[in-house]
């Protein structure tokens, strides 16, 4: 008959606390670059799609052809009344570009 060491389960429970801490550290490590790439991708998508739509006169679905490879996650939406296009990277970033006569498409200022 085997005996159970009472110290072993407590040690295992203490080690289980390291798993969430490790995940939080990994998320913190990757958050800054991932969020930065998402913001830049959304800004690029909004600016390119706005120029294509309101300066080029093409449909928004046709404007997706102008995106670089790897931008498949970016979604676009249009506000015809405001002449603006919003690009979103899921859960991380979104940006809006607005068309102004004589100026072209301009991105909204970034805020922290």
Placed side by side, the strands forming the largest sheet appear as: 1-2-3-4
Strand content: 15-25%
How many helical elements?
3
Q: Specify the structural class.
A: alpha+beta
Distance between the termini: 63 Å
Please tell me the total number of domains: 1
For the largest beta-sheet, the strand count, sense and barrel status come to: 4 strands, antiparallel
Spans with pLDDT under 50 lasting ≥5 residues?
A: none
Identify the overall geometry.
elongated
- Number of beta strands: 4
State Rg: 23 Å
Order of helices and strands: HHHEEEE
Proportion in helices:
40-55%
Overall mean pLDDT stands at 85
Give the tags.
four-stranded antiparallel beta sheet; alpha+beta; 4 strands; 112 residues; single chain
Summarize the entry for a quick read.
By secondary structure, the protein is an alpha+beta fold. The protein has one domain. The chain has helices spanning 7-16, 18-55, 60-63; strands at residues 75-79, 84-89, 93-100, 104-107.
How would you describe what is shown here?
The chain is an alpha+beta fold and 112 residues long. It has one domain (28-107). 46% of the residues lie in helices and 21% in strands. The chain is built from 3 helices and 4 strands. It has helices at 7-16, 18-55, 60-63; strands at residues 75-79, 84-89, 93-100, 104-107. Strands 1-2-3-4 form a 4-stranded antiparallel beta sheet. The longest helix is centred in the first third of the chain and has 38 residues, at 18-55. 23% of the residues are buried. The mean pLDDT is 85.
